[in-house]
Amino acid sequence: MTAPAHGHPPSAPEVGIGWRHPHHAALLEQQPALGFIEVHSENFFAPGGAALAVLREGRKHYPVSLHGVGLSLGSAVGVDAWHLDQLARLVQTIDPVRVSDHASFARGPSDHAADLLPVPMSHEALDAMCANVNRVQDRLHRPIAVENLSAYVQWRDADMDEPDFLNTLAQRTGCQLLVDVNNLYVNALNAQLRGETGDPLDHCRRWLDAIAPAHVAELHLAGHVHCGDIVIDDHGSRVVDAVWALYRHAVQRFGAVPTLIEWDTDVPGLDVLLDEASRARAAARRALTPLELVT
Q1: What's the average model confidence in pLDDT over 81-93?
Q2: SS3 state of residue 71
Q3: 39 near 93, Cβ under 8 Å?
């Protein structure tokens, strides 16, 4: 944990927002104070064109975090060479502050799924993911961050838990971890609905406590929707109180780690995202403030 100097208020982490198409013009016009902006890498793979021109303009004003969904880091058939080439070109063009993707797979021998699928938490799957992460990092000449997944199915042949899997992945490859607090809570709620766990908050706190702080490069916050029999990580609403509570716990454990507000469906006005970013800064400051400065 990053401890504040005694008697001085703590520094808030860099907080960014996902920069989606409805806000391209507004952000460039208003240029609000943000630590960084995040975009989905695959949306900017085309060489040239309007999309890349907008991203170049955004890069003039903000650090950019490139967050991907297509590397398929858990695939047993490896990383797609064309996809990696496009990402490498984008990284060279934008010089992002971070590059990240998910601890998932989507690519098989002849197909590419349209979703992020979970990998078994097994040593065999870990070997495959380590090989893929190493290949990506060698190509990009930088470490990447790997995000924990919101998953709706589980494999039966797991022989390690998720924190152990991610910690070992980081130790063996030198990659960083992107901890999505909302994903963690969504998984815990669904596990509770299946009768597999008790208090979701207790489950999530134990998960966070099991992650080595030195590996964590970024935190993600988002909204989700509870459908009654399943909870969906839809990134379509404000962050709920339980996730804010887990975020404060994460900040107390990992320190002032850069934090992203994600919002990908039913995207509201830019002012709503900026308000969520302000709430994240305030929550982090509160979490990092020693008790003697609070009372």
Answers
A1: 97
A2: coil
A3: no
